[in-house]
Amino acid sequence: LGLPRRARLVGRALRETPVDLKLPWHRVLNAQGRIAFPVGSEPFREQEARLRAEGVPVLGGRVDLPRYRWRPDLDELLWGELLESGESPPRGDRGGAGRNDQG
Fold first, then answer.
1. What dihedral angle (degrees, nearest 10) is formed by the CA atoms of 61, 65, 70, 72?
2. Is 62 helix (H, G, I), strand (E, B) or coil?
3. How far apart, in whole angstroms, are the C-alpha atoms of residue 56 and residue 51?
4. Disulfide: which of 44, 77, 80, 97 matches 37 by Cβ 3.0-4.6 Å?
């Protein structure tokens, strides 16, 4: 999605995250759509292979961002895990908290 000047924050978050969470770290690219690891390094080759396994072409260490950038809709941002599991998002209580009831 792009967090301007937040590359270090993203890197730190990925480093600090427990391995058992199995985050899709390979989907993190720099602002130009390039793999940030040194070309030919083991992490570079692994990231490239994982992206290709998902059907994302990598040419010269670069992904076509206008075509493959993640563009979530609001429901996906708010309820992503629930939607993937097939569950319905919560409906909230209909009791009036925050509602403009007329007595």
1. 170
2. strand
3. 5
4. 44
pTM of the predicted model, to two decimals? Answer: 0.63
* Backbone φ and ψ of 39, nearest 5°: -55, 130
> Nearest 5°: phi and psi at 35?
-70, 130
Q: What is the pLDDT of residues 27-61, one digit of tens each?
A: 889 889 999 999 999 999 999 999 999 999 999 99
- Side chain identity at residue 45, one-letter code: R
Among 52, 60, 16, 15, smallest CA distance to 35 is for 60
CA distance 36 to 22: 20
Handedness of CA 97, 98, 100, 103 (dihedral sign): positive
What is the C-alpha separation between 30 and 27, in angstroms, rounded? Answer: 10
- Kindly list the distances between the CA atom of residue 86 and the CA atoms of 52, 68, 71, 83, 89, in Å, as whole numbers in the listed order: 27, 24, 20, 5, 9
